[in-house]
């Protein structure tokens, strides 16, 4: 079921491209209990961090393809998820298609994503549920943020189809795996990526059954290690606890309305025990893991966030390359650069799903 565009939450852009992001008529659900915040005067957003963000965005502009996309290798590698993440990186700085200093470039990126979505009549975006989740997230956060009403209608249609794919491919255990198949298995890493975008879509106004969210909670319960509080890659003790899964699992549980549960309290204790080494000494899938970890800290509250953000901020600044990228090949980009920008830009809170 698709909601009317006239009941869509208010997401507007003022003339300078600064986002006025609000969620209005749907704020009664746990996923919608968001507080807007501006990072313009946030003391934790240092001049060095702002410079790193701008340098990273400049790198992305330098590697954008003529058709508006970004890819891993110049041959279309991971084009859908990287384009989606790059768009999110600009939106994290309140730069949107059709407005601001890079409105034309972001319009081309938006057009590429919409053209791709139109070509997929089944609603499945990308080659895996990871890619599908990131593309769905970008569409959700773009909806209502363009200057073209026809674009909004196109985004809404593509977003609804993408969400339908997610809902019908949820495993009976509550999770997702690589392909859109309800009998295709489940793992925590894929589940957290998919549910993140599903939460964003529901926040934007797309109908998501409560049963779907309840089943995610069931999955997370089965994937949590009772002794450590961390989350494992596979449910029911079939894999080891990892920081990436614990960070994403915690954030997913928070988005599912379980913020005050013992499940979340235990996982936060697990994360805190690893601080600051998990930032300064590294962690598996570093950028992916910290992309979720910082959002879990935002949801956990000021005490957690105030301790965590300055450390990951300074670590990312030190890891940035001279060309403005994080682990990008010369002339191309990868998921690390946009994810690092999104993490650094956390104080801005311009994107609704990244607000508390």
Characterization of this structure:
This protein has one domain (5-354): Glycosyltransferase (Alpha/alpha barrel). The protein is built from 13 helices and 2 strands; from the N terminus they run E-E-H-H-H-H-H-H-H-H-H-H-H-H-H. It has helices spanning 47-63, 79-91, 103-119, 129-142, 149-168, 188-204, 210-223, 243-258, 262-273, 277-280, 286-300, 302-319, 336-344, and strands spanning 11-13, 19-21.
Assigned CATH architecture: Alpha/alpha barrel
CATH class: Mainly Alpha
Tell me the CATH topology. Answer: Glycosyltransferase
What sort of overall outline do the alpha carbons produce when their principal axes are compared? globular
Helix content: 40-55%
Number of domains: 1
N-to-C terminal Cα separation, in Å?
A: 27 Å
Strand order of the largest sheet: 1-2
Layout: helices, strands, pairs:
Blueprint: E1 11-13, E2 19-21, H1 47-63, H2 79-91, H3 103-119, H4 129-142, H5 149-168, H6 188-204, H7 210-223, H8 243-258, H9 262-273, H10 277-280, H11 286-300, H12 302-319, H13 336-344
Antiparallel strand pairs: 1-2
Helix pairs in contact: 1-13, 2-3, 2-4, 2-13, 4-5, 4-6, 6-8, 7-8, 8-9, 8-11, 11-12, 11-13
């Amino acid at each position: 079921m698709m909601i009317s565009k006239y009941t869509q939450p208010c997401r507007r852009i003022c003339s300078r491209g600064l986002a006025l992001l609000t969620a209005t008529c749907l704020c009664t659900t746990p996923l919608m209990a968001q507080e807007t915040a501006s990072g313009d005067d946030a003391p934790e957003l240092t001049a060095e961090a702002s410079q790193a963000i701008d340098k990273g965005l400049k790198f992305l502009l330098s590697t954008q393809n003529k058709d508006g996309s970004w890819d891993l290798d110049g041959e279309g590698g991971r084009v859908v998820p990287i384009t989606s993440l790059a768009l999110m990186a600009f939106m994290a700085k309140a730069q949107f298609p059709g407005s601001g200093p890079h409105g034309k470039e972001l319009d081309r990126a938006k057009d590429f994503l919409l053209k791709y979505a139109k070509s997929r009549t089944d609603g499945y975006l990308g080659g895996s549920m990871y890619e599908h989740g990131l593309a769905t997230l970008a569409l959700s956060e773009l909806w209502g943020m363009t200057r073209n009403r026809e674009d909004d209608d196109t985004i809404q249609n593509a977003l609804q189809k993408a969400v339908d794919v997610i809902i019908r491919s949820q495993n009976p255990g509550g999770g997702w795996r690589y392909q859109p198949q309800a009998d295709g298995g489940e793992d925590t890493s894929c589940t957290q990526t998919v549910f993140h975008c599903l939460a964003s879509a529901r926040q934007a106004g797309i109908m998501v059954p409560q049963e779907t969210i309840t089943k995610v909670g069931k999955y997370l319960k089965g994937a949590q290690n009772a002794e450590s509080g961390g989350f494992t890659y596979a449910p029911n003790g079939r894999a080891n606890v990892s920081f990436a899964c614990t960070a994403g699992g915690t954030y997913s549980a928070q988005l599912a309305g379980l913020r005050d549960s013992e499940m979340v309290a235990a996982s936060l204790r697990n994360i805190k025990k690893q601080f600051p080494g998990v930032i300064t000494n590294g962690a598996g899938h570093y950028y992916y893991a910290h992309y979720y970890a910082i959002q879990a800290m935002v949801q956990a509250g000021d005490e957690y966030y105030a301790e965590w953000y300055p450390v990951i901020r300074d670590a990312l600044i030190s890891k940035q390359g001279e060309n403005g990228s994080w682990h990008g090949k010369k002339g191309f980009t990868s998921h690390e650069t946009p994810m690092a920008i999104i993490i650094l830009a956390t104080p801005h809170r311009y994107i609704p799903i990244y607000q508390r």
